[in-house]
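Re-run requested by the PI after the first attempt was lost when the workstation crashed. Everything re-entered from the original request form. Ligand of interest: S-adenosylmethionine.
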Amino acid sequence: MPLQHYLKQFFAADKKYGSKDRRHITHLCYCYFRSGNALQHLSAEERIRISLYLCSDTLEGWTGLFSEDWVTAHSKEVAQRIAFIQQEGIAFQPGSIFPWLDECSPDMDTAAFTQSHLQQPLVFLRIRPRQEKQVLQVLENNNIVYSRPEQNCIALAPGSKADQLLQINQQVVVQDLSSQRIGSLFTHIHKPGTNQVWDCCAASGGKSILAYDMLPDIRLTVSDVRASIIHNLKQRFVEAGIRNYQSFVADLTSKAGIPRSDMFAGKFDVIICDAPCSGSGTWGRTPEQLTFFTPAQIQQYAILQKQIIATSATAVARNGYFLYITCSVFKKENEEQLAYIQEQTGMQVVASGLYQGFTERADTMYAALFVKS
Ligand SMILES: C[S@@+](CC[C@H](N)C(=O)[O-])C[C@H]1O[C@@H](n2cnc3c(N)ncnc32)[C@H](O)[C@@H]1O
């Protein structure tokens, strides 16, 4: 169970905690998990205290937990906070926060990646076409502090109220920076006429809305193994103004899972395969995974991904495109799947790479775009 849901249930079951208590307990639990596997030799209390020191940009409200020299030495820079606690004799190796570095994509800056878990990622919004002026006006009128890492991207501090002031899905979509950058791969797609696009692991449609906003003349088909998430997608599409699309529920581990699979062969100009994965590029948002993840899961995901690829890739039309995406940092789910797709389908790589969002307090993702010439 995600920590967020666990805490919600915990607070609902015991009403004695006021809103400030809930906020503080939540913060301490998240700090505790952010240190991953690095401070496991300490007692829980001490681990919470040291993690709090490492993860906080400011000790305001918490100074009573630390001696005066610790408070004075506290820096805004994570690297300096790490250096200080090491100098104080606490055995802390940032590399142990995330102990599966050998499994990671070779291109990754592993030192920066492990350290990034000590900081909560930002919230990113994607401005939808023709909404920029109104969106910026709302942010300015409400004195919201933001930055723009990309023309259509708004980066906000966690807990910012901006999403309550804007029309979500209509004016902006909540979408991580790396997902937004993956959208630029759609600029490689050149095809006259209608683009038949199948988002085959659609969840609530984040990538579908991105494709809708970026590809001209698009006809969407969406599916997922979970009926409940397709229900959410339909609601979201209403808000996003997407009307003409087909949807169905399908388990793509085998062709038998697709209704009328014979109708699908070679039908789609673009297939988006945003596959189920370990999510290891997003653990800055769910740091409890650093404690509960077991490496055997990497292989399980890799098998599931291969099955989904094998089923969905047969539906790519001649001169069509296949976009494989994960939010994982593991090479078994990324580069090794690229090799598998090439080998199994003969499709050619147009572009591929790891989107190292952790350098900008965003998620890390992998994408590979193929063409079937
Ligand atoms: C990474 S999420 C997709 C996120 C989505 N594209 C977005 O942008 O919001 C992967 C999705 O794959 C779905 N999935 C898992 N196993 C599947 C299977 N066997 N067949 C089809 N979809 C599956 C999950 O239900 C999940 O919604």
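Saved to the shared folder this time. The two ends are 44 Å apart (CA to CA).
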